[in-house]
């Protein structure tokens, strides 16, 4: 138990009162006895107060007056002590109340600090988004364009004889650099595959084919996700330009070309062929899912066509074309169209 000033004061008052009562009890029965000068004798076993032996010494009037003054002062002190004890008790109660209020304020302050931290985090995130938006708006006007049909040559990032590199804002993909063919067949073609010198390895895994890879002005693959987002509304044309090892120019054009979502493994929908390219071409692969060496979605149960052909494609049962095959090999693993004897030295696939 904590000993407080109030407890100490109460004890002092009790001791004074007990002493006074004891003296008065033992001396009040003796006439002419002044309490200040009573000296108790040995206690009697009797409970009768009149039988207590008391020795009393008569004092002078001055001593008696002094004694009364002391008694008066003691009463005043007792009153003061009672007041002090009451005040101390009141202060202790106020202190407890103040302490409780301080603890409550500390709790509120802690919650406020946590709320401020959360708010600051949200403000920082909002600031980042705002900066991104400002940066986005500060880009050349091509940053808000969705296809090669809207580009202006003066805003090109790079160019060569057949076209230019632009920034396009592709839904769900974001700001992406693409190569736009602005010269062939009326222009406005978005190139998503090109093989021209063999300096980029096309025998890659699923993630690379989803995101894209290579040099936009050279050999490259734009990316399956971008291709899906750009064709998901339908009514897209697709054109393939090829040059054989013997220098023959082939064109395969399709009036309807669409790539499904990633959840369906970027399934191919293609129809409406025209052109002079040899063989069945893409028609054989209509409604097929895309396959890579680490993601087998072809129709051949006995093997992975992407591994067997060292490429990646909408393989059905591995036959009829291998435009992402090995640039310098011959046979099934090579870079060919229609038949593995029709080896190529150039291919370009594009949509409009």
Structural account:
It is a single chain. The chain starts with a helix and ends with a strand. The protein folds into two domains: 5-103; 142-351, Gamma Fibrinogen, Chain A, domain 1 (Alpha-Beta Complex), CATH 3.90.215.10. It has five helices and 14 strands. Strands 3, 4, 5, 6, 7, 8, 9, 10, 11, 12, 13 and 14 form a twelve-stranded antiparallel β-sheet that branches. By secondary structure, the protein is an alpha+beta fold. Strand 4 and strand 5 form a beta hairpin.
Please report the number of helical segments.
Answer: 5
CATH-assigned homologous superfamily of the largest domain: Gamma Fibrinogen, chain A, domain 1
Q: Report on the biggest sheet.
A: 12 strands, antiparallel
Give the beta-strand count. Answer: 14
- CATH classification, class level of the largest domain: Alpha Beta
Q: Which sequence of SSEs, written as H and E, runs from N to C?
A: HEEHEEEEHEEHEEEHEEE
Helical amount: 25-40%
Determine Rg (CA atoms, Å).
51 Å
Tell me the span between the first and last alpha carbons. 89 Å
- Molecular shape: rod-shaped
What average pLDDT do the residues reach?
Answer: 80
Q: Nutshell version of this structure?
A:
The chain has 352 residues and is of the alpha+beta class. It has five helices and 14 strands. The chain has helices at residues 5-27, 61-138, 206-211, 224-231, 305-309, and strands spanning 38-40, 54-56, 158-159, 163-170, 174-181, 189-195, 213-214, 220-221, 238-244, 249-259, 268-275, 321-322, 336-337, 339-351.
